[in-house]
Design a protein that fits this description.
This protein is mainly alpha-helical. The protein is built from five helices and no strands. It is rod-shaped and about 75 Å long.
Length: 153
């Protein structure tokens, strides 16, 4: 059984416009995620600085210096933050690219779900993306671009 064909009309124009806007917002949010990874890099640099300074300080001064694990903790936290931000940024960029090409709807929905964890902007983008991609008319737009051999009946 073939899915019903889309009739050009208001709903289709609205779906196309919403997908265009979501594509733009995903590119912007992906760029913000990439910029956020710089905070992880900053933490890693602080941890490196702490470890190098703490090893040189030794017992100078009145109190004892913090343990060297203090610097390594900053490095580890920074690396995790940086990796998460880079992964989210890459996911958003791929999602925007594939939304524009009307491909990989499931991937776009998964990325939208993960971006809901980034309060407040990611939540807004994620919720609106899930609402738009959940529409049957939008699903038909994505199905039109799938090759006939991979289309599910």
């Amino acid at each position: 059984m073939n899915p019903p064909q889309l009739q050009p009309g208001y709903q289709q124009m609205q779906d196309v416009e919403h997908l265009r806007l979501l594509t733009i917002f995903h590119y912007i949010f992906g760029g913000l995620c990439y910029a956020g990874s710089l905070f992880g890099l900053l933490y890693m640099m602080m941890g490196t600085l702490f470890t190098s300074i703490l090893s040189e300080v030794g017992t100078k001064g009145s109190g004892s210096p913090p343990p060297p694990q203090f610097g390594w903790m900053f490095i580890a936290i920074g690396a995790v933050v940086m990796l998460i931000c880079l992964a989210m940024g890459t996911g958003c960029m791929l999602s925007a690219k594939w939304m524009k090409a009307r491909r990989n709807r499931t991937f776009c929905m998964v990325v939208a779900g993960f971006s809901c964890l980034s309060i407040p902007f990611g939540t807004a983008i994620g919720v609106f993306t899930l609402i738009v991609l959940g529409r049957p008319t939008v699903a038909m737009l994505f199905n039109e671009n799938t090759p006939a051999t991979t289309r599910h009946a």
